Amino acid sequence: MATSSTQRTYTAPCPGCGAPVAFRSAQSTHAVCSFCQSTVVRDGDTLSRIGKMAELFDDHSPLQLMAQGRFQGKAFTLVGRLQYRSGSGNWAEWIALFDDGSQALLAEDNGAYVMALPARLERELPQAQQLRLGATTAVGGKAYSVALNEEVALVSAQGELPKLPPLGKTFPMVELRSADNEVLSIDYGAEPPALSKGRPVELEELKLSGLREESTKETAARQFNCPNCGAPVEVMLADSKSITCRACNSLIDLQQGIGGQLSHAIQDEPVQPVIPLGTAGQLQGVHWQVVGYQHRLGTEPDDPDEHFGWDEYLLYNRKRGFVFLVDTTEGWSLVKPATGAPTLSQNQQTASYLGTTYQQQYAYKAETTYVAGEFYWPVARGHTSFNRDYAKGKSLLSMEETPKERTWSVGNKIESDAVAKAFGLEAKKDLLQRGDAGPVSGKAGLGCGCATLFIIVFVILVLVMMVKACDDENRGTGSGIRSGGSWSSGGSHK
Q1: Which has the closest alpha carbon to 26: 158, 157, 160?
Q2: N or C: which end of the chain has fewer CB within 10 A?
Q3: Nearest-10 Cα torsion for 174, 177, 181, 184
Q4: Where are the transmembrane segments (predicted)?
Q5: What average pLDDT score do residues 220-242 get?
Q6: Which element (helix H / strand E) includes 92?
Q7: What is the DSSP string of 164-182?
Q8: Which residues are bridge partners to 103 per DSSP?
Q9: CA distance 482 to 400
Q10: Dist. CA 491–CA 494, nearest whole Å
């Protein structure tokens, strides 16, 4: 648990309402009054009101102000929060104040977290437009890949802040990622641009206390009427950016907030997931709940008439974040978004990540064709990307690229029996069997002649082809392990 900071805490009345506004860090220049949402700036011991901050969007994060923890042996307290919006969705960055007065950012990263410390370069930072998506650049003698280059805007803030970009005004943000899971973020909303260097963390390893507990956090569903059919829709997932109406299957964009003008897309051909939404189970020692489902269609780049389909289930754990359970005709896999960026060979036929080299299996275009449930990114029917799948044994690595972001997912193949057991579907395990199921074997000495055996084999082959044809009609024609992770499974790292 964090101890009391050795820095002097300064408190002054808010110029807007008179409530006390506290500054714990000497580096904090701005704060947001928790009572009237006034944005105040500190000049010595004087506070001046410079406007009113927009209301926070409720991200139902387990984090909250004054939560305490430890990182690299030092105690810290969360003293501020910045909420951003981009074309890929919303995310938050928490300002962590260490007891020695230094600061860090605990940033959301595709359903997980990255702890980043301020960094400096000996040379001047390049302009954002010079950092092309997918390009490799050296920083301090280390190779990084440009994983994100997008316009973002600050939409709200809370607590005390070391900076305050103009509210609602867009500015570039660039992310560079290395093959050993390091993230360099360049924030062009500051002058000069602010640089931070971080690595992935799990909330458990930060030994956090003072989190929003399940018993006290707002768990009541957010409710509204479907903009298409008027049926009631309940939003339960912590960070939902999109949801489907259970009555009419419309896909609803939640980015404007409930009560705002919600856009929707009608989905005329509902697909029934094999694992029902809401199903909970324990997979690889972690308790997960199925909160989202999407069906995706792939197209071979050299043969646009050749299609194959696969399914992706979004799984959620409050402290572990999100992973994807991927269902293809050749088997199941469990993958999660990678923090780093694997190193590609010049011909892109191999990719190296965390000491393992993977061989490319497939390259294809992918499109989301059906969505159900809730998602932490603004998933959209018709979302397209270019994907590359790599593998080494049962280990999988997948790249997904859109015009603004290149993302990676990493995971492993798992047995269909393990999936059935995890989600209590043993009675339906035959429906979950894929390419990992063993071949049907016959026993010799059954007293049937070769002709009879030939007929039996022939009938089995015909039945198999009929079943496969029906399956392909519903799922698309299977063509290999599509481990995608899909954006790699979804939207933005943020």
Answers
A1: 160
A2: N
A3: -40
A4: 444-467
A5: 70
A6: strand 89-98
A7: -PPBT-EEEEEEEE-TTS-
A8: 97
A9: 11
A10: 8
Among 299, 332, 314, 316, CA closest to 437:
332
What is the predicted pLDDT for the residue at 23? 65
Give residues with Cβ within 8 angstroms of 146, minimum separation 6: 131, 132, 133, 134, 135, 136, 137, 174, 175, 176, 406
Sign of CA dihedral 56, 61, 66, 70: negative
Listed range (272-276, 295-299, 399-403, 486-490) with the worst mean pLDDT: 486-490
Task: Summarize pLDDT for 298-348 with one digit per residue, the tens.
Answer: 998 777 778 899 999 999 887 788 899 999 988 999 999 898 899 999 999
**Is the pLDDT at 488 greater than 50, yes or no?**
no
More confident of the two residues 92 and 492: 92
Cβ atoms of 357 and 343 closer than 8 Å: no
In the structure, what pLDDT confidence band is assigned to residue 5 with cuts at 50, 70 and 90?
Answer: very low
**Greatest mean pLDDT among 15-29, 160-174, 425-439:** 160-174
DSSP state of 64: -
Considering all CA atoms of the chain, what is the largest pairwise distance in Å, rounded to the nearest integer? Answer: 99
Cis-peptide into 192, omega within 30 deg: yes
- In eight-state DSSP terms, residue 493 is -
pLDDT at 203: 86
56-83 CB burial, b ≥16 within 10 A, e <16? ebebbbebbbebbbbbeeebbbbbbbbb
Instruction: Tell me which architecture the domain covering 220-270 has in CATH.
Output: Single Sheet (2.20)
Rounded-to-10 torsion of CA 16, 18, 22, 27:
30
In this structure, is the dihedral angle defined by the CA atoms of residues 82, 321, 90 and 72, taken in order, positive or negative?
A: positive
CB contact at 8 A, 284 and 334:
yes
